[in-house]
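Weekly modeling sync, notes
Attendees: S.R. (lead), two postdocs, one rotation student

Agenda item 3: backlog of single-chain predictions. S.R. asked that every request posted to the team notebook include the full sequence so nobody has to chase files. The rotation student volunteered to paste the first one in as an example of the format we agreed on. Action items at the bottom.

Example entry:
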Amino acid sequence: MSKLIVRAGEFTFDARFEEQLAPKTVAAFRKAMPFESQAIHVRWSGEGVWMPLGDLDFGVSYENHTSYPAPGQIILYPGGISETEILLAYGGVHFASKMGQLAGNHFITLTSGLENLTTFGKTVLWKGAQQIRFEEI
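Predicted structure, as returned to the notebook:
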């Protein structure tokens, strides 16, 4: 099992890849690492932050997909109805876009620092975009 560090704003979270449940998504994301973006607050989905990725194509389809990621779960929406994106739930999420309900591949789970997750989400909500970086260690 590989370990990840997710640096989000002023917070650091340990994480793991969901290699058994989403092997193709994990392999595709690994090729893009270290991965850096900006997290902004979701518009329709509830308590989450997302990284809009436009037409970036990871070359994956649905696997281990959900519309209801739990706090600390990270999903990759591979594009199609809406743009490609990564979403991190910090509270209740019903993943959606202006086109309606979406589903994304749950491929990373945060394993430590969860006590700071809500604070991070509210920081994004009230203070705006925050840098986020995914590194494998």
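Discussion: group reviewed the output briefly. The chain has two helices and eleven strands.
Action items: rotation student to repeat for the remaining queue; S.R. to check formatting next week.
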